[in-house]
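Review form for a predicted model. The reviewer records the input and the model, then writes brief findings.
Reviewer: anonymous (R2)
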Amino acid sequence: MISANTNETNKTGIGDVGMGISYIPYMKNSQGIAVRARVYTNSAVDPAFGSGKWVVMPAFFYGRYFNSKKNLWISSFEYQQSFAGSSQRNDVSIAVLESVLFQFFGKNWVAGDVALRYNNTLNGYQNNAYVEYGRRITPTNLVYIHPSVAFGGDKTYNYGIEAGVLILF
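Model under review:
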């Protein structure tokens, strides 16, 4: 769900919907690598809520635990490229380098993240950073909330807040 001001009117609706699959080909001791492929549809109910394009997003991850698995660092690189959708909308061509550090305590965690994002279509940077608080509510279900701030010359927003549920299976 997305809420945005469009033409001085606040609207809320469904944004681009996506799906993905991840695979961990290497995990040993306290480190590992993973790959992920995601696809977003152009399913937004309003042009302000999505790209108007189908977008494929391959990604590569490296993660490492520190201090007896109480700290986790994950760095990733993702490339986002549109391959179909409205010819009236700009193509998507974005490279993202992201790094996040987690501190775990009991069923909870706090994290800090910085994402450096270059939008090739705009020839500009759309970076963001956030802090996050999360809690495991069952062995396979987690909830989190994170406020964020954007920075860079071509940022897409100023401040944001995200809340979510992760279901692991």
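Findings: The chain has no helices and twelve strands.
Further findings: The CA atoms of residues 4 and 11 lie 6 Å apart.
Recommendation: see findings above.
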